[in-house]
Specification:
The protein has helices spanning about 5-20, 25-45, 50-65, 75-95, 100-115, 120-140, 145-170, 175-195, 205-215, 220-225, 230-245, 260-285, 290-295, 310-325, 345, 370, 380-395, 400-425, 430-440, 445-470, 475-490, 500-515, 520-545, 555-575, 595-620, 630-655, 665-685, 695-705, 715-735; strands spanning about 285-290, 330-335. The protein is mostly helical. It folds into 3 domains: about 20-170 and about 405-545, no CATH class; about 175-225 and about 230-370, no CATH class; about 550-735, no CATH class. Strands 1-2 form a two-stranded parallel ribbon. Keywords: Cell membrane, Membrane, Transmembrane, Transmembrane helix.
Length: about 725
């Protein structure tokens, strides 16, 4: 029976690896990358020899691949960094190539360091893996010390050419950052539309997290960044809780009646404004907003339709929409001038004599942080990443670390497959360890997906390239041209799936080796079965020495619970003492926004949820179940409970009191009870025990008794009640069955 989960998991990963994704294509970017390969191969073929052309092609090809990775670092920097790593790997490999034992030890060490690089990030892991691949390939070319230096220089030159082309032939400057910010605004707009029909509609914070990553720039980039990219991200962040609060029937308008219709109109108009802003940012043009949408975002001439918390949320939505329009650095097109609300009414300082029930609710916290001071998220330079990488290596250099186990697995598999390839008769035995290093990833699903995709893609690619070579018998220049076409197709289709990428690489290798005179029949057959051998070794090594994600589910859930609870406590503290000063763990004030503590807690919550989503997704593809004492059904229920807790806190954040509001002792007691309960609750979740949220329920009961005389309970109390229910649902989900 234990075989069935493995067969099921292998079948699912095989289908996933062979799937093709529909994605936007960027022909000009692909053409530029292929041009870089063509320049390097053409020059070396003209001035040197076919062997030098083959060597130089790997530098330009791998540096080009590095520029296509999902990274916000400048593309020329990625190309140069990859070129430096490839050149160093090439030269060190040549130095040890004369001593077989020394080379195997060096190869294993290099593969181990490449595996550890995954702890720094996916881009670092991919680039480091390519350095192992180039070491395997280039050292097979016979040469002297001076020849090794020449090969190293050619490898570095390939990266320099790619970097130079990016500078000389720019394609859509800041385009990826524009897309990231526009996607965040469009996601919030889609959320507003879904809230019209489903007040509890879920929201995936991934676009907002991506936009935040894209906003990190170097000081030099900050001086050159388009003005449109400087102020909208904070607005997108603040729209979401206001939209959810307005739509929620517990803290907003009732589900039926005139107030609900007004809420739907406001949500639709806000979505229209956000979509128009996203479209303008994406295209770098002026914002075009329909007049009817602006007309909705006014206080009706007959007087306010909404009342209480719903009215407060509506006025904040109107103010935020005005800020979105004003933040556009390009002119805004409307049919006729139609101001949303007078400037003086919502930008004036808060006054003690102004109540929340007036038509305009003034909250100085609504002013975006970008309007307070020109600041940006700083991206460290490459030299600044060195101490970060060293800290990561020290942190991950332990046997229990998944990254360290991956590094050990890669080192052993690459070294063993290299020795096996040397013992086999084929000339290109290095293809087997090369496949190992390019296929293996730190998790089960991606390793097996890439293994099947690599084999299938290689079959197609070498079959097509072999047929073309057999029929046309192209000369060296013709083979070089076909190799450039293959790599151009790979750059173009990079994001569609690894099977297609492998097909293009397979064709590229066949054409490239034919430049040096390799027979197509020998190349095709060797490429196919050596790729199959390397893929089999990679997948077998993971099965023998696995690093399962399933046992980590409870740890990720406990981290998410801690982060969500801290976020809730930070929000409740504002109700407990509206004049509270945000402070860090040591009690020292945090710089910047007065709600900085809430912001930091929200970012921690998103990061914890992202880790949970990644672990749960990978665990779902593994052939093991319940290793962590948490079934997939229980994990889904626990996830729903924590999403609800986060959503309730987000609703509460939309109703933060002004600095002149009265402190709420019930909120303070509830926050302290939750804060004291969190450490023990997280521990019990990790250790498969039942969490006890009794103190939280007791504090909630006393809060209800304190507010019993009020005609309607305050928003904070109603939200705390929903939060307590979510915590109980979490306790039921993680209780061992």
């Amino acid at each position: 029976m234990k075989v069935l989960p493995w067969l099921r998991a292998i079948g699912e990963t095989a289908r996933s690896g062979l799937s093709v994704e529909r994605t936007a294509l960027h022909p000009l970017v692909a053409l530029r990358g292929a041009l870089g390969v063509a320049i390097v191969v053409g020059l070396t073929l003209w001035a040197g020899s076919p062997e030098l052309a083959v060597s130089s092609a790997f530098g330009a090809f791998s540096s080009g691949v590095a520029t296509f990775q999902r990274s916000w670092r400048p593309r020329p920097v990625l190309a140069l960094s990859a070129a430096a790593g490839l050149a160093l790997s090439t030269f060190v490999g040549f130095l040890a190539a004369g001593e077989p034992l020394a080379f195997v030890v060096l190869l294993a060490l290099w593969a181990f360091l490449a595996g550890m690089a995954w702890g720094v990030g996916p881009t670092a892991g991919v680039v480091a893996s390519s350095t192992v691949a180039v070491m395997l390939v280039t050292v097979t070319l016979p040469t002297t010390l001076l020849g090794a230096l020449a090969h190293t220089a050619l490898i570095a030159a390939g990266g320099c050419v790619q970097a130079a082309l990016i500078v000389l032939l720019p394609v859509r400057r800041w385009g990826e950052r524009r897309d990231a910010l526009a996607d965040a605004l469009a996601a919030v707009a889609d959320y507003a539309r879904r809230l019209r029909h489903d007040p509890s509609a879920p929201f995936d914070p991934e676009p907002l997290m991506t936009a935040r990553s894209a906003a990190a720039v170097t000081p030099r980039q900050a001086r050159r960044r388009p003005r449109q990219l400087g102020g909208y991200r904070g607005l997108a962040e603040r729209f979401r809780p206001v939209l959810a609060s307005l739509a929620d029937p517990d803290v907003g308008a009732p589900m039926v009646g005139q107030e609900r219709e007004r809420v739907r109109e406001l949500l639709s108009a806000a979505a229209t404004v956000l979509d128009a802003t996203a479209r303008a940012i994406r295209r770098g043009e002026r914002v075009r907003i329909p007049q009817d949408a602006l007309a909705v975002l006014q206080v009706p001439e007959t007087g306010p339709v909404l009342h209480g918390p719903a009215r407060k949320a509506a006025m904040r939505l109107i103010a935020l929409t005005q800020e979105a329009v004003d933040a556009a650095q390009e002119p805004v097109e409307v049919t006729r001038p139609l101001p949303l609300i007078p400037r003086a009414t919502w930008r004036m300082p808060a006054r003690p004599d102004r109540s929340e029930d007036e038509d305009v609710y003034v909250d100085t916290e609504a002013i975006p942080e970008e309007a307070r001071a020109p600041r940006h998220l700083t991206q460290p330079s490459l030299t600044g990443l060195v101490p970060v990488a060293l800290r990561v290596l020290r942190r991950e250099l332990r046997w229990s670390s998944p990254v360290c186990r991956h590094a050990v697995r890669v080192a052993v598999a690459v070294a063993a497959t290299y020795l096996l390839g040397k013992a086999l008769p084929p000339e290109h035995g290095y293809w087997a360890p090369l496949t190992v290093v390019m296929v293996m990833r730190p998790d089960f699903s991606r390793t097996y997906e890439r293994g099947f995709a690599r084999l299938a893609g290689t079959l197609v690619g070498v079959a097509v390239a072999g047929s073309v070579t057999a029929l046309l018998h192209p000369p060296p220049w013709g083979s070089a041209a076909l190799a450039v076409v293959s790599i151009g197709l790979m750059y173009l289709l990079m994001r569609t799936g690894y099977a297609i990428v492998s097909a293009c690489i397979g064709a590229y290798v066949v054409f490239l080796l034919s430049i040096a005179g390799s027979l197509w029949s020998q190349t095709v057959l060797e490429r196919i079965w050596l790729t199959a051998l390397g893929g089999a070794v990679a997948m077998l090594s993971y099965a023998v020495f696995p690093t399962w994600e399933t046992p980590m589910l409870r740890d990720r859930l406990a981290d998410w619970l801690t982060a969500t609870g801290s976020y809730t406590v930070a929000v409740l503290d504002r109700f407990a003492d509206p004049k509270v000063t945000a402070s860090g763990p040591t009690g020292t004030p945090l710089p910047g926004h007065p709600d900085r503590r809430i912001r930091e807690a929200l970012l921690d919550t998103r990061a914890a949820r992202q880790e949970w989503d990644r672990t749960a997704s990978r665990a779902g593809a593994e052939p093991v179940r319940h290793r962590g004492g948490l079934s997939l059904r229980s994990a889904a229920d626990a996830q729903d409970a924590l999403i609800t807790a986060g959503r309730v806190t987000m609703l509460l954040e939309a109703h933060l009191p002004g600095p002149d509001a009265e402190p709420d002792p019930g909120a303070d007691e509830f926050a302290r009870a939750l804060e004291s309960t969190l450490p023990e609750a997280s521990r019990t979740v990790r250790e498969k025990e039942v969490p006890d949220f009794g103190p939280v329920h007791e504090a909630l009961s006393r809060w209800w008794e304190r507010e019993a005389d009020r005609p309607s309970p305050p928003v904070a109390l109603r939200s705390a009640d929903l939060l307590a229910d979510a915590l109980e649902d979490l306790a039921d989900a993680v209780t061992p069955k």
